Amino acid sequence: MFIIYRSIPPLVLLAILITASGCSVYMAAKQPNAKKTSLFQPGTPRNLLLGEFGSPIVSEDREGRKIEIFRFIQGYSTGVKTGRVIFHSVADVFTLGLWEVVGMPTETVFSGSEMAFQVSYDDDDQVDEVIVLKKK
Protein backbone atom coordinates (compact mmCIF):
# COMPACT_ATOMS: atom_id res chain seq x y z
CA MET A 1 0.00 0.00 0.00
CA PHE A 2 2.87 2.36 0.81
CA ILE A 3 4.30 1.81 -2.67
CA ILE A 4 1.07 2.95 -4.28
CA TYR A 5 1.04 6.18 -2.26
CA ARG A 6 4.68 6.92 -3.16
CA SER A 7 4.03 6.53 -6.89
CA ILE A 8 1.00 8.87 -6.89
CA PRO A 9 1.72 12.55 -6.29
CA PRO A 10 0.10 13.73 -3.03
CA LEU A 11 -2.03 16.40 -4.75
CA VAL A 12 -3.47 13.86 -7.18
CA LEU A 13 -4.27 11.50 -4.30
CA LEU A 14 -5.94 14.34 -2.38
CA ALA A 15 -8.00 15.31 -5.44
CA ILE A 16 -9.18 11.71 -5.87
CA LEU A 17 -10.21 11.46 -2.22
CA ILE A 18 -12.06 14.77 -2.26
CA THR A 19 -14.04 14.00 -5.43
CA ALA A 20 -14.92 10.47 -4.34
CA SER A 21 -15.96 11.41 -0.84
CA GLY A 22 -19.62 12.13 -0.30
CA CYS A 23 -21.12 9.98 -3.05
CA SER A 24 -22.51 7.38 -0.65
CA VAL A 25 -23.80 10.22 1.54
CA TYR A 26 -25.65 11.69 -1.44
CA MET A 27 -26.95 8.27 -2.51
CA ALA A 28 -28.25 7.54 1.01
CA ALA A 29 -30.00 10.91 1.16
CA LYS A 30 -31.65 10.36 -2.24
CA GLN A 31 -33.02 6.87 -1.52
CA PRO A 32 -36.79 6.60 -2.10
CA ASN A 33 -39.13 7.33 0.79
CA ALA A 34 -41.16 4.63 2.51
CA LYS A 35 -44.70 4.18 1.17
CA LYS A 36 -47.74 3.23 3.28
CA THR A 37 -48.35 -0.28 1.93
CA SER A 38 -50.95 -0.74 4.68
CA LEU A 39 -53.32 1.17 2.36
CA PHE A 40 -53.53 -1.93 0.17
CA GLN A 41 -56.49 -3.40 2.04
CA PRO A 42 -60.23 -3.68 1.42
CA GLY A 43 -62.15 -0.50 2.17
CA THR A 44 -59.41 1.97 1.23
CA PRO A 45 -60.70 4.72 -1.08
CA ARG A 46 -59.05 4.85 -4.52
CA ASN A 47 -58.08 8.50 -3.98
CA LEU A 48 -55.87 7.55 -1.03
CA LEU A 49 -54.00 5.02 -3.18
CA LEU A 50 -53.52 7.58 -5.95
CA GLY A 51 -52.28 10.14 -3.44
CA GLU A 52 -49.72 7.79 -1.91
CA PHE A 53 -48.56 5.78 -4.94
CA GLY A 54 -49.34 8.02 -7.90
CA SER A 55 -50.96 6.85 -11.11
CA PRO A 56 -51.20 3.10 -11.64
CA ILE A 57 -49.17 1.53 -14.44
CA VAL A 58 -52.30 -0.32 -15.63
CA SER A 59 -55.93 0.74 -15.30
CA GLU A 60 -58.63 -1.27 -17.05
CA ASP A 61 -62.16 -2.61 -16.75
CA ARG A 62 -62.58 -6.37 -16.56
CA GLU A 63 -66.10 -7.73 -16.49
CA GLY A 64 -67.43 -4.43 -15.14
CA ARG A 65 -64.80 -4.09 -12.38
CA LYS A 66 -62.03 -1.50 -12.34
CA ILE A 67 -58.63 -3.20 -12.00
CA GLU A 68 -55.39 -1.29 -11.44
CA ILE A 69 -51.78 -2.27 -10.94
CA PHE A 70 -49.46 -0.14 -8.84
CA ARG A 71 -45.69 -0.63 -9.10
CA PHE A 72 -43.21 1.34 -7.02
CA ILE A 73 -39.94 1.18 -5.11
CA GLN A 74 -40.46 0.78 -1.38
CA GLY A 75 -37.92 3.02 0.24
CA TYR A 76 -36.88 3.93 3.74
CA SER A 77 -38.18 6.08 6.58
CA THR A 78 -36.67 9.49 7.24
CA GLY A 79 -34.97 8.18 10.38
CA VAL A 80 -33.29 5.31 8.56
CA LYS A 81 -32.14 7.58 5.73
CA THR A 82 -30.77 10.13 8.22
CA GLY A 83 -28.90 7.42 10.10
CA ARG A 84 -27.32 6.17 6.89
CA VAL A 85 -26.27 9.69 5.88
CA ILE A 86 -24.65 10.28 9.28
CA PHE A 87 -22.91 6.91 9.21
CA HIS A 88 -21.49 7.43 5.71
CA SER A 89 -20.38 10.97 6.60
CA VAL A 90 -18.52 9.85 9.72
CA ALA A 91 -16.99 6.87 7.90
CA ASP A 92 -15.80 9.19 5.10
CA VAL A 93 -14.13 11.53 7.58
CA PHE A 94 -12.42 8.78 9.57
CA THR A 95 -11.14 6.98 6.47
CA LEU A 96 -10.29 10.13 4.51
CA GLY A 97 -12.80 9.19 1.83
CA LEU A 98 -11.71 5.58 1.40
CA TRP A 99 -15.07 4.44 2.83
CA GLU A 100 -16.58 5.24 -0.58
CA VAL A 101 -15.11 2.00 -1.94
CA VAL A 102 -17.55 0.17 0.37
CA GLY A 103 -20.25 2.81 0.82
CA MET A 104 -21.20 3.39 -2.81
CA PRO A 105 -21.78 -0.31 -3.68
CA THR A 106 -23.67 -0.71 -0.40
CA GLU A 107 -26.04 2.14 -1.26
CA THR A 108 -26.50 0.71 -4.76
CA VAL A 109 -27.54 -2.68 -3.36
CA PHE A 110 -29.80 -1.24 -0.65
CA SER A 111 -31.74 1.11 -2.91
CA GLY A 112 -35.23 -0.06 -1.98
CA SER A 113 -37.44 -2.98 -2.93
CA GLU A 114 -39.60 -3.15 -6.03
CA MET A 115 -43.21 -3.90 -5.21
CA ALA A 116 -46.37 -4.39 -7.27
CA PHE A 117 -50.00 -4.75 -6.24
CA GLN A 118 -53.13 -5.46 -8.27
CA VAL A 119 -56.22 -3.77 -6.88
CA SER A 120 -59.89 -4.08 -7.77
CA TYR A 121 -62.57 -1.65 -6.66
CA ASP A 122 -66.25 -1.85 -5.76
CA ASP A 123 -68.95 0.49 -7.10
CA ASP A 124 -67.97 3.19 -4.56
CA ASP A 125 -64.30 3.25 -5.72
CA GLN A 126 -63.10 1.52 -2.59
CA VAL A 127 -60.65 -1.37 -2.64
CA ASP A 128 -62.40 -4.72 -2.51
CA GLU A 129 -59.53 -7.06 -3.43
CA VAL A 130 -55.73 -6.83 -3.34
CA ILE A 131 -53.32 -9.26 -4.96
CA VAL A 132 -49.62 -8.96 -4.20
CA LEU A 133 -47.76 -9.35 -7.50
CA LYS A 134 -44.23 -8.59 -6.33
CA LYS A 135 -42.93 -8.02 -2.87
CA LYS A 136 -39.17 -8.18 -2.54
In words, what does this structure look like?
This protein has 6 helices and 4 strands. By secondary structure, the chain is an alpha+beta fold. It has one domain. The protein has a 4-stranded antiparallel β-sheet with strand order 1-2-3-4, with no helix packed on it. Helix 3 (23-29) runs antiparallel to helix 5 (78-94).
Main pleated sheet: 4 strands, antiparallel
Query: Strand order, biggest sheet?
Result: 1-2-3-4
Number of strands: 4
Helix content: 40-55%
Distance from first to last alpha carbon: 40 Å
Shape: elongated
Q: Decide which structural class fits the backbone.
A: alpha+beta
Q: What proportion strand?
A: 15-25%
Taking all Cα atoms into account, the compactness measure Rg is 22 Å
Order of helices and strands: HHHHEEHHEE
Average per-residue pLDDT, rounded, comes to 87
Poorly predicted runs are none
**Helix count from the secondary structure assignment:** 6
Query: Domains counted in the coordinates: how many?
Result: 1
Based on the model shown, name its key terms:
6 helices, alpha+beta, 4 strands, 136 residues, four-stranded antiparallel sheet
